[in-house]
Write a structure and sequence with these properties.
Blueprint: H1 4-8, H2 16-30, H3 41-56, H4 58-113, H5 126-134, H6 136-145, H7 158-188, E1 200-206, H8 208-213, E2 216-220, E3 226-230, E4 240-243, E5 258-264, E6 271-273, E7 276-284, H9 285-290, E8 292-298, E9 301-307, E10 316-319, E11 334-341, H10 348-359
Helix pairs in contact: 2-3, 5-6, 6-7
């Protein structure tokens, strides 16, 4: 889903009343009954409803805002790191260019002075200068690129000599082009591009029914892009889903991954622990002491459970195989956690019984 705030047209600090008013206005405007000629009306109406369902719930809205802030912070940090790396590379290029210009200026100054030198002292050639600055490999390449670097074979015919000379000239030209291209790259610098862009992390809020029905989940990306994936057996609360090639895109590098952490909704009737589905069930004091048969609502419908006698609030009734799929062909359990509750109004007989149990029975 796209950014729910932009869908409803409200600011990120909008109050619940403003969000509700925006939802009503948007839903009325795009309702399919009022836009029967628009084929996209149903999809837009559903999108507005999903946005409102997320923002009207304080907990879901808080989790979404937190995930968005984390994604924006990480993206901003990555941009800052890239800018710093580019600045360092630019400084290195400038330093290399400055060094080259200094050496060339020194050579030009020495040549312009043209002072008499002893016969034993030879002026520094361009090849020697390149060797001093860039190493012996540079001098070898320049020497290979100069005409007459290799001797001709006197035994060849004139036609063969002409062909060989042409091949040598082409080879020298290629060597010279390669060397000066490398020299230019060294002066300008070469940006090191990562093979793969960094990953992006996100969170997705899902309900127990979403996991059971293996529904599709939509993640809104910072660049107004959406990524969808389907819930599968073996996924549960805290499960991490890695979506290859759905993350950050940088120039001349492979797109990174999108790493999504599934978070089970905390306001749901049911909770998840591993692949077990938990729920709480209130029982009276009499049922806790004497035991009873009870009907409990589960994600799969109503279930009949037996509450054993003398069951406290620390007791749980476990129904095998009514939990989530564990991804290996099995299922978790449905766990009913018992909670003892008292009557709305005090019961005199119960109070007398408890008093006698605590203080002793007197006739």
């Amino acid at each position: 889903m796209r950014d729910p705030y932009s869908i409803l047209g409200v600011q990120r600090d909008a109050g619940s009343d403003e969000i509700k008013a925006a939802w009503r206005s948007q839903a009325k405007a795009v309702h399919p009954d009022h836009n029967q000629t628009d084929p996209d009306a149903t999809a837009r109406f559903a999108e507005i409803g999903q946005a409102y369902d997320l923002l009207k719930d304080p907990q879901k809205r808080g989790l979404y805002d937190q995930a968005r802030r984390v994604a924006e912070t990480k993206k901003r940090d990555q941009t800052i790191m890239q800018q710093r790396a580019a600045a360092r590379e630019a400084a290195q290029r400038a330093k290399a260019a400055e060094k080259l210009m200094e050496e060339l200026a020194k050579a030009q100054s020495r040549a312009s002075k043209a002072e008499p030198q002893p016969e034993s002292a030879k002026p520094e050639s361009a090849e020697d200068m390149l060797e001093r600055i860039f190493g012996a490999d540079a001098k070898a390449k320049v020497a290979a690129a100069k005409p007459g670097a290799a001797s001709d074979n006197a035994n060849m015919s004139e036609e063969e000599q002409a062909t060989a000379q042409s091949e040598k000239m082409e080879a020298r030209a290629a060597q010279a082009s390669s060397f000066f291209s490398a020299l230019l790259r060294r002066i300008r610098g070469t940006t090191v591009v990562p093979d793969k862009a960094p990953d992006i992390t996100a969170e997705a809020i899902v309900t127990v029914s979403d996991l059971i029905e293996q529904k599709w989940v939509t993640i809104g990306m910072p660049e107004e892009r959406e990524v969808r994936f389907q819930l599968e057996p073996g996924m549960t609360d805290g499960h991490v889903v890695r979506l290859k090639g759905q993350g950050l895109k940088l120039p001349e590098s492979a797109r990174g991954d999108l790493v999504v952490t599934l978070l089970a909704s905390r306001d749901d009737t049911f909770s998840i622990r591993n692949f077990d589905i938990h729920t709480t069930f209130p029982i009276s004091l009499a049922d806790a002491v004497l035991g009873c048969e009870a009907t409990v609502q589960s994600p799969h419908g109503e279930l009949k459970v037996t509450v054993p006698a003398w069951s406290g609030s620390d007791r749980a009734v476990r129904v095998d195989g009514k939990g989530l799929k564990d991804g290996s062909g099995g299922y978790g359990d449905f766990v009913v956690e018992l909670r003892i509750i008292l009557l709305d109004t005090p019961d005199a007989k119960v109070m007398d019984l408890m008093r006698h149990m605590r203080e002793g029975l007197y006739l």
